Amino acid sequence: MSGALLVAGTTSDAGKSVVTAGICRWLARQGVRVAPFKAQNMSLNSFVTADGAEIGRAQAMQAAAARVEPEAAMNPVLLKPGADGRSQVVLLGRAVAEVGAMDYRERKPVLLERSLECLADLRSRYEVVVCEGAGSPAEINLRDRDIANMGLAVAAKLPVVVVGDIDRGGVFAAMYGTLALLSAEDQRHVAGWFVNKFRGDARLLAPGLEMLHRLTGRPVLGTLPMLSGLWLDAEDSLDLTTVVERGDVRGPVGADVLRVAVVRFPRLSNFTDLDALAQEPGVLVRWATRPEELADADLVVLPGSRATVADLAWLRERGLEAPLRARALDGRPVLGVCGGYQMLGREIEDEVESKAGTVAGLGLLPTRVVFGREKVLARPVGEAYGERVDGYEIHHGVVTVEGGDPFLDGCRVGAVWGTTWHGALENDGFRRALLREVAELAGRAFVPAPDTSFAAAREERLDRLGDLIEEHADTDALWKLIEGGVPGDGLPFVPPGAPRPLEN
C-alpha cells in the first residue's frame, strides 16, 4: 500500500496538527508504517533532526505519534518570521534565504517541485503519508502559488478532509464557505469533514451534520470532542494562553509551589522548552510582559527568540531590565535559553540578523555573542548536576564564554544560568536537580516529584490523540480514502452563493 491523505482546516488553529497526529498514532497502532508531511510550515517553534536538519516542531511531534524518526523530508519548507516583516526560508533543513512576502511568492513554483519530490520519496518508503495543510485551503488570493493545500492536493492527487473548529462558532458556514470558494477541480479532492473541539450533547448537533452532508455532498467523518491538557508542540506563539499558560498546579509534593515567570518576547521561539516545567507537580508557569509580573517569581526564564536584538530592545522598553538586574544582585534565579542566554551577556555583535552592529547586553553573564551567517544546528549531549542531558541547538549567535562556571556549553554566575540548548528541561533528572536548587535559592519548601517523566507524559498525550480518532472518527471511511485516493467526479460541485435546497 502507498496511500496518502491531506488534512486541511477551515482556519488556522482549527486542529489540523492534532487530527494529523491522531491519524498517525491510530495507524501506527495497527502496525502501519506511517509518516507525517507538511510541505510548508510557518513557525518559530522548530526542532533539529538526528542528521542536523531543522524542521517544524509540530512535524517532529507528529513523527513521534507515528513512532518514526523525524526527518527533513517531512517538512521541506519552513518559514521563520523575523522582526522586519521578512522570513527566513529553511529548505530541507537548511536556511537558504531571507525574503519578503512577494519575494517568497516568486520562489513557490520551485518549492512546490521540491515538496512534491519529498512527498514522493516518503510515499516510496512508507505505507501511508498523512499530510497537513497550512492555514485555509480557501485563501483564494494565494491559490495560484499554493504549495501546502489544494495546490499540493491536486499536484499529488490527494484526497482532502477539512477540519473545522466548532468552539469558535460558525463551523457550518466555514465548512460550506470553504468548499464553495474552491474551483471545480479543487472541490473534487475534498472528501469529507471533521468537526473539532465539540462540547455538549451530540444529539443537538446531528441535524446540522445531516444538513451539511446534503448541502455539500460530503459526509462528516468525525465529531471530535474538546480535549484539555494536551500540551502538544504547537506551530507558533500566536495564542500562547492555550499553549503554555498553565494555571493548573497539580499535586505539589512539598509544602509549597514554585512560581516561574517566562518573559514573553514578541518574536518568541521554541516556547515548548517550558512545557517540561509546566507539567511538574507544584510548578506554576506564567507569562510576563511587565516588571510587576516578575516580582513574586522564584525563577525568571528568558526563552529563545527569532530576533534577539529586537527582543532585547523590547525588553528594555518594557522596563524589564532593572528587575532582572536586581534579581541577579539579590541571588534570585534567572535562566536564559538560546536567544535569552545571548541577551544575558555583555555584548552582542550582529551584522546578520538585525544588522544592528554591536549592542550592549544585560551584562549578567561574562559572555560575548557574535552572529554568524551559518546557522548552528546540533544535537548535543552533556551532563549537569551529575545527570545526563540531551538537547538541540538552533542559532546564528555564537557565544564566547569569558568566565563563570560551565553549564551545558554555556555558563553560570551565582543564580544566573545560560545555555544555547533547547530541550534540556525535558531531561527528568536534570530538571528535578535544577528545580531543587531554584527552590533552595528562592527559599521555597518545594520538592520535585521523584517519578515525573516528561517522555511518558508526552506519549500519553499522543495516545489520547490516537484514541480521539479511533473512538470518534469513521475509520472505515478514512481507510477507503487512504487506499482509494481522490473520490472523483461523483462528488457534486457547490457554486458560491447557491446552496442546494434542503430536503425535509
Q: Could you walk me through the main structural features you see in this protein, from its secondary elements to its overall organization?
A:
It contains 14 helices and 27 strands. It has 504 residues and is an alpha/beta fold. The protein has two domains: 255 residues, Rossmann fold, CATH 3.40.50.300; 196 residues, Rossmann fold (3-Layer(aba) Sandwich). The chain has a seven-stranded mixed sheet. The chain has a six-stranded parallel sheet with strand order 2-9-1-10-11-12, with helices on both faces. Strands 3-6-7-8 form a four-stranded mixed sheet, with helices on one face. Helix 5 runs parallel beside helix 7.
Shape: globular
User: Mean pLDDT, nearest integer?
Assistant: 92
The major pleated sheet works out as: 7 strands, mixed
The CATH class of the largest domain = Alpha Beta
CATH architecture annotation name of the largest domain: 3-Layer(aba) Sandwich
Low-confidence sequence ranges = 241-249
User: CATH superfamily of the largest domain, please?
Assistant: P-loop containing nucleotide triphosphate hydrolases
Which key terms come to mind for this protein?
504 residues, alpha/beta, Rossmann fold, 2 domains, seven-stranded mixed beta sheet, six-stranded parallel beta sheet, 14 helices, 27 strands, globular, CobQ_synth, cobalamin biosynthesis
